[in-house]
TrEMBL record:
Species for this entry: Daphnia pulex
Domain of life: Eukaryota
Protein name listed in UniProt: Uncharacterized protein
Length: 284
């Protein structure tokens, strides 16, 4: 991991911890860290550190660069075991002479017990690096042990894996408890055509999520691309917008201190301490 990436990781972990998030690390061989980081979330429910309660807890996957914009799209549904978002967005794929619908990994929700049924009913339980790689290898063969390349077939291994298992689960249990959230009339803010600064509030109401620009904490990106989104989401004087702005400023200041420390190593001040955090809370 490069120095800049390490700083970003440390900063993110600091704030996730402050929000009482539960963070699970997987001990991964260096050659397969990318593959495992891409695929481990569909096996998270088998890890011994996973804290969820099988019957009660509803868990939905997400991507770190996706911001949900319509809360009602992401909620559990009564009498539904599985909630699928954007389930009609992708073309089917074939493997072993069988066609499967492609369900995007960005947002798939289910109770913990249902997740375990989906992933474990048709295969030996995978619960660590070796068993996850073996599980994937049983389905995708040798490509699991090759380097991942962005955009190539292996890059979507987790999405293909969960799509296969979802179809198997539905074949066994039926579709009556599967809720497909309709995207009809809605669209996504996407980084490749980011026009949030030109969007009117009435048009914003028809967006279901935002695929954020890369390097969003750069000053130029934040002011041009993220601040307008926050204003549409929360309003100028909301605590949410103020909290996000304070987080951005803290990240910017901490990065400047980190860069100074890297180039002036005699400076021994900590990068993140009790004085470099957002004090604004939801109650404020």
């Amino acid at each position: 991991m490069g120095e800049t990436s390490r700083f970003k990781c440390d900063f993110s972990l600091f704030y996730l911890g402050a929000r009482r998030a539960i963070i699970i690390f997987l001990d991964a061989p260096p050659d397969y860290q990318t593959t495992l980081s891409q695929t481990v979330r569909i096996f998270a429910f088998n890890l011994k550190e996973f804290p969820g309660r099988p019957a009660q807890d509803f868990v939905m996957t997400s991507d770190t660069d996706l911001w949900p914009l319509r809360k009602e799209h992401f909620l559990p549904r009564p009498n539904s075991d599985i909630v699928l978002l954007h389930s009609e967005c992708c073309t089917p794929f074939s493997i072993n002479n069988r066609s499967y619908p492609m369900y995007p990994m960005s947002n798939i929700g289910a109770t913990v017990s249902t997740w375990r049924q989906i992933m474990n009913d048709n295969h030996k339980i995978a619960f660590n690096s070796d068993s996850i790689l073996n599980y994937l290898g049983d389905v995708f063969g040798e490509q699991v042990r090759r380097p991942l390349v962005v955009g190539e077939e292996g890059w979507y291994m987790d999405q293909r894996m969960i799509s296969i298992r979802l179809l198997e689960w539905m074949t066994k249990h039926g579709n009556s408890s599967v809720y497909r959230v309709s995207d009809h009339g809605f669209s996504r803010f996407d980084r490749i055509a980011w026009n949030v600064g030109d969007l009117l509030p009435e048009s914003f109401a028809r967006q279901f999520d935002a695929h954020l620009p890369e390097k969003m904490f750069l000053s130029s990106q934040w002011k041009r691309n993220i601040q307008p989104l926050l204003l549409l989401m929360y309003g100028k004087h909301s605590w949410e917008a103020r909290w996000c702005t304070m987080l951005y400023k803290t990240a910017e200041n901490s990065f400047e201190r980190w860069a100074f420390t890297v180039y002036a190593p005699e400076v021994k001040e900590p990068l993140i301490d009790d004085h470099t955090h957002c004090s604004l809370t939801e109650q404020e």
